[in-house]
Design a protein that fits this description.
alpha/beta; CRAL/TRIO_N_dom_sf; 5 strands; Phosphatidylinositol Transfer Protein Sec14p; CRAL-TRIO domain-containing protein; CRAL-TRIO_dom_sf; globular; Helicase, Ruva Protein, domain 3; single chain; about 350 residues; 2 domains; 12 helices
């Protein structure tokens, strides 16, 4: 369904009536792009104004109850712990598409989530979301002279194996937070370096997804370089997509966009640290993690998690994986809505 200006108008009238502090936290959400953000919640609820209104109110209450507006002044300390989180929760920003959308890279297969408590991983994920929405997107919108409110994500499946079974609960928590509180923030997902185990899981998960969700993700051949270069410059390719390059300029040292030393993570960490220090403290003291309430996953998400878990158990029983999947030709198909 296309954009309905009438639905947005009706939704805006309802939202204009909300009380403080919900109105204040919503300003943090829309960053001046009110109608574009109302449209996100409408899309997530198939343009049903009543359902979108309920969804947005629940999101705003979640933000207030969990003090999400202040999460960008809550650094993960000490730095060694933040480094451990970055080494085990592989996510980064590699650049921008030709249309100006931020390109986020996610190491699905090699993320282990085994060096900190679940609360630190959730805190880190929400901080990246908030930095994207409150700093990066407003900046790139201003630079391009038009609203840019979404990003693209490149999901690297390198190393995906049966041990992923132990990560399903945490990934489900993070995905649910995104589904309910950051809906429609990802324009397209690109899956690269996909092994056979991904193909098998995808076949059983795909029928469970809504068409709107399925159409978002493209499963690319191999590292996906050739396809991704159609929408972004070489310098914006995630490091895991740069295999097989030729030419002297392509032999320069490739920066791992997951690393804490990557400019994106340095800028994010310095931003959070600065906002902590402006509260009057010179150096972040050791603190507990920023605990966030975990929303109950929707029925679709629960069913997907159970299906993936069942499929992985089948592989576990068969003791091994068949031949790699990424030798296949590119197929433009689709994965999950928001997250990991």
């Amino acid at each position: 369904m296309g954009v309905s200006e009438e639905a947005i108008d009706e939704f805006q009238e309802l939202i204009d009536q909300i009380e403080e502090p919900l109105k204040k936290t919503f300003e943090r959400v829309h960053q001046g792009y009110l109608r574009e953000n109302l449209s996100r919640f409408l899309k997530a609820r198939d343009w049903n104004v009543c359902k979108a209104h309920t969804m947005l109110l629940e999101c705003l209450r979640w933000r207030v109850d969990n003090e999400i507006d202040s999460i960008l002044s809550k650094p993960i300390v000490p730095t060694e712990l933040y480094r451990d989180v970055r080494d085990s929760q592989l996510i980064g920003m590699s650049g921008y598409t030709k249309e100006g959308l931020p390109v986020f890279a996610i190491g699905v297969g090699l993320s282990t989530f085994d060096k900190a408590s679940v609360h630190y991983y959730v805190q880190s994920h929400i901080q990246i979301n908030e930095y994207r929405d409150r700093v990066l997107l407003p900046s790139v919108s201003k630079k391009n002279g038009r609203p840019i409110t979404t990003c693209v994500k490149v999901l690297d499946m390198t190393g995906l194996k049966l041990s992923a079974l132990s990560q399903i609960k945490l990934v489900t928590i993070i995905s649910t937070i995104d589904d309910l509180n950051y809906p429609e923030k990802t324009n397209t997902y690109y899956v690269v370096n996909a092994p056979y185990i991904f193909s098998a899981c995808w076949k059983v998960v795909k029928p469970l997804l809504q068409e709107r969700t399925r159409l978002k993700v493209h499963v690319l051949s191999g590292c996906g370089k050739d396809e991704l270069l159609k929408i972004m410059d070489y310098t914006s390719l995630p490091h895991f997509c740069r295999r097989g390059s030729s030419g002297s300029s392509h032999h320069a040292q490739i920066v791992d966009c997951f690393s804490i030393d990557h400019p994106f993570h340095q800028q994010l960490y310095n931003y959070v640290k600065h906002h902590y220090e402006t509260k009057g403290q010179a150096e972040p003291a050791k603190q507990g993690s920023f605990h966030v309430g975990f929303p109950e996953p929707e029925a679709e998400r629960v069913e997907i998690a159970k299906t993936i878990e069942s499929e992985l158990h089948k592989f576990e029983r068969y003791n091994g994986l068949p031949k790699p999947f990424n030798d296949r030709k590119s197929s433009h198909e689709t994965l999950s809505d928001e997250g990991p």
